[in-house]
Amino acid sequence: MPAPRINPARRSPDEIAATDSYQPGDRVWVYRERAWQAGIVSDTSPESAVVIRGGQRGVQEETVTAPHLMVRDDEYVYLDTVTYV
What we know:
mainly beta, 85 residues
């Protein structure tokens, strides 16, 4: 499944999972730098999730809110084969 094409601001609230429904190690799509990028959940709270993602500046860890996350089924060797959490 390729990266989503929807803008987070246009997502229906019904299709947005709460950040604390994700678990450390879950594969996710993260919306940053105007694009969906592969990421891995590091930690969660009811308000936000900490994710590790690959971007234009290499691997970064940052905090995101629920509209900026989606479940990812694809495997990305660059991120998924290294243990971060």
